[in-house]
């Protein structure tokens, strides 16, 4: 499962990296931004930096609203299908602003970055009409280029994107049976007193249609298209659900309440049954697989919480199926989700967090979030254990060995961060500190050690953005660095004209997290911790002993022992050195054990 996903992601990454020259993902939406839209923060922008994008957030954080806007982006589609004004829920425009959004796509002929503005315009016969508009300077839009290509522009604006779009959510996958049985009106005639009576009445007609592949009419009731799923469709559904199907048939009818819906009949080796006795997740997967396998190349696919009613393994298989379709058909897919299993193993470029700012009440975004951290924002961690994040694989191995040696493996999960120390300070620490997270801890190498600051001891006069910025630089400055890191915080309105009170609060939380949850190994690098000259044989001792760089010492030892210094060889030397180091339980070992003990004693929130 994991290897399959990894290979698909690597292939899609390569395709996407080559896209600028080869136009592999045609008519691809590169970003969408919102000068004024619903409850979104002003100028909120979502960048689509990977062909499949996952939107994670709490209920009511705007995930579905984003999908609705994207649905309304292409030619012939409109947001009004999902969002419209009523007396109960009126839509109000501001005096100088109408609800609108702007999206960008790369043009085919001029290779320009087109920007299309769609605005809500009130008309006499339609109060929720949306139409494309000329570029507006107040929204930071550029004039049309002088080398106009009439295939891509009108006289005043870029053409609206011509792209097929599919919006798929749990409601769209409800069968005719589910819609009627759970939401339809109860019948009351002389012969039909219950919903069950009505369903029994039409069951023979549906069975005949399935058996004979025959469209049929019964007074004003009709069976429309009948489809037997192909071997390819059955194979994909079987793979996702872990269940073998001999036959699946799909038809549309209006027998129950005159509204058109669909029915499914399944055959396995042991039984035959309809969607009435299938799980809702089983039905949803059939509909989704049919639609995606039949979607046109380069389509825009919008999935709203596809994990509904699916067990975790099926969720993972579903994402692998979607990745396969992205690779094959060059689809652009945006998925809203609450599921850690859906985003497992995905690149950070694919994951965006939507959240409602507690101060302004507006929806904001955090982009490029690692899957392990995404659900911290909605009050959920993937692991029930305390999580320790180290800089690299060797540091992870050392910390894990100390934990195992002391019988605490069930309490901890140790990970390493592949993005580098600078990204740890920017991405990991801003995420964890913002949520007052006391379940995630960071252990940097010793060369990152800095004095800690107690925010309780900071006078109010020093709680300004300028002073706190300098203090954060002081705690993020490594031993070999000229200056500390300029950490960026996501606030309403951006840094220029952003919410100053909110930014100060985030900066103080960052300093507190550094004080409480960040630790340092006892040596500059982990290689220095485990190195021991005593393990060297006389033939190699002088050559390695004179080498001052501990990484090079290990590389030379690997080359001497294995006649090569591949990653596998070096890893073998690491294990040998760690085993020897653990036996001695020296001062460095005790210092790391003290860190583990302090983390263990912290209250698990």
Structure overview:
The chain has 605 residues and is an alpha/beta fold. 37% of the residues lie in helices and 19% in strands. The chain folds into 3 domains: 2-164 and 297-353, Rossmann fold; 176-289, no CATH class; 383-605, no CATH class. It has 19 helices and 20 strands. The strands form 4 sheets. The protein has a 6-stranded mixed β-sheet, sandwiched between helices. Strands 2-1-4-5-6 form a 5-stranded antiparallel β-sheet, with no helix packed on it.
Q: Uncertain segments of ≥5 residues (pLDDT<50)?
A: none
Q: Determine the number of helices (DSSP H or I, runs of at least 4 residues).
A: 19
Strands ordered across the widest β-sheet: 7-13-14-3-15-16
Shape: globular
**Main β-sheet description:** 6 strands, mixed
Tally of distinct domains: 3
How would you classify the helix and strand content by structural class? alpha/beta
Q: Assign a percent range to the helix content.
A: 25-40%
Average pLDDT rating: 88
Any chance you could write out the topology, listing elements then pairs?
Layout: H1 2-17, H2 19-22, E1 29-36, E2 44-47, E3 52-57, H3 63-71, E4 100-106, E5 113-123, E6 126-133, E7 165-169, H4 176-183, H5 195-212, E8 217-218, E9 221-228, H6 231-241, E10 247-253, E11 261-267, E12 272-274, H7 280-294, E13 300-304, H8 312-329, E14 332-337, H9 340-343, E15 351-356, E16 363-367, H10 371-374, E17 386-390, H11 393-405, E18 412-416, H12 421-434, E19 440-444, H13 465-475, H14 500-517, E20 518-520, H15 526-530, H16 538-545, H17 550-562, H18 567-584, H19 587-601
Parallel strand pairs: 3-14, 3-15, 7-13, 13-14, 17-18, 17-19, 19-20
Antiparallel strand pairs: 1-2, 1-4, 4-5, 5-6, 8-9, 9-10, 10-11, 11-12, 15-16
């Amino acid at each position: 499962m994991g290897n399959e996903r990894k290979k698909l992601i690597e292939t899609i990454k390569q395709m996407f990296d080559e896209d600028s020259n080869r136009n592999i993902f045609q008519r691809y939406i590169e970003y969408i931004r919102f000068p004024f839209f619903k409850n979104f923060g002003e100028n909120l922008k979502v960048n689509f930096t990977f062909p499949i994008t996952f939107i994670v957030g709490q209920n009511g954080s705007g995930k579905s609203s984003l999908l609705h806007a994207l649905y309304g982006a292409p030619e012939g589609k409109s947001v009004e299908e999902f969002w419209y004004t009523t007396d109960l829920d009126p839509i109000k425009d501001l005096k100088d602003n109408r609800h609108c959004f702007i999206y960008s796509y790369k043009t085919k002929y001029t290779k320009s970055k087109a920007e299309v503005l769609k605005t809500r315009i009130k008309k006499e016969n339609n109060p929720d009409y949306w139409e494309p508009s000329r570029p507006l300077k107040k929204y930071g839009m550029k004039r049309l280029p002088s080398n106009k290509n009439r295939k891509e522009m009108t006289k005043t604006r870029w053409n609206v994107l011509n792209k097929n779009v599919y919006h798929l959510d749990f409601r769209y996958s409800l069968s005719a049976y589910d819609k009627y049985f759970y939401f339809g009106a109860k019948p009351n005639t002389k012969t039909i007193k219950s919903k069950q009576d009505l369903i029994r009445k039409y069951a023979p007609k549906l069975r005949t249609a399935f058996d004979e592949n025959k469209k049929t009419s019964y007074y004003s009731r009709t069976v429309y298209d009948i489809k037997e799923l192909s071997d390819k469709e059955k194979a994909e559904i079987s793979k996702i659900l872990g269940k073998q199907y001999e036959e699946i048939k799909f038809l549309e009818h209006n027998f129950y309440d005159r509204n058109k819906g669909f029915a499914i009949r399944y055959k396995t080796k042991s039984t035959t049954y309809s969607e009435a006795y299938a799980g809702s997740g089983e039905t949803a997967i059939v509909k989704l697989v049919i639609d995606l396998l039949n979607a046109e190349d380069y389509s825009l696919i919008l999935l709203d919480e596809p994990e509904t009613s699916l067990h975790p393994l099926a969720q993972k298989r579903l994402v692998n199926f979607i990745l396969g379709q992205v690779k094959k058909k060059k689809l652009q897919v945006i998925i809203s989700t609450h599921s850690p299993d859906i985003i497992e193993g995905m690149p950070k470029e694919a994951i965006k967090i939507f959240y409602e700012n507690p101060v302004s009440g507006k929806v904001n975004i955090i982009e490029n979030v690692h899957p392990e951290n995404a659900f911290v924002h909605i009050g959920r961690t993937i692991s029930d254990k305390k999580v320790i994040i180290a800089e690299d694989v060797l540091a992870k191995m050392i910390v894990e060995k100390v934990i195992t040696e002391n019988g605490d493996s069930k309490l901890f999960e140790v990970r390493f961060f592949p993005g580098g120390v600078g990204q740890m300070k920017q991405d990991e620490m801003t995420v964890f500190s913002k949520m007052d997270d006391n379940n995630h801890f960071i252990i940097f190498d010793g060369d990152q050690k800095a004095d800690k600051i107690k925010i309780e001891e900071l006078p109010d006069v020093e709680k300004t953005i300028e002073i706190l910025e300098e203090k954060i630089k002081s705690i993020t400055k490594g031993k070999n660095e000229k200056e500390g890191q300029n950490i960026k915080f996501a606030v309403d309105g951006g840094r220029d004209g952003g919410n100053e009170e909110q930014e100060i609060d985030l900066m103080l939380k960052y300093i507190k997290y550094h004080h409480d949850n960040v630790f340092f190994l006892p040596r500059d690098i982990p290689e220095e911790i485990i190195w021991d000259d005593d393990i060297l044989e006389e033939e190699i001792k002088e050559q390695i002993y004179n080498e001052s760089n501990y990484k090079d010492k290990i590389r030379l030892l690997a080359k001497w022992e294995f006649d090569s210094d591949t990653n596998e060889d070096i890893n073998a030397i690491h294990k040998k050195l760690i085993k020897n180091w653990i036996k001695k339980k020296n001062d460095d070992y005790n210092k790391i054990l003290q860190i583990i003990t302090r983390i263990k004693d912290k209250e698990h929130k």
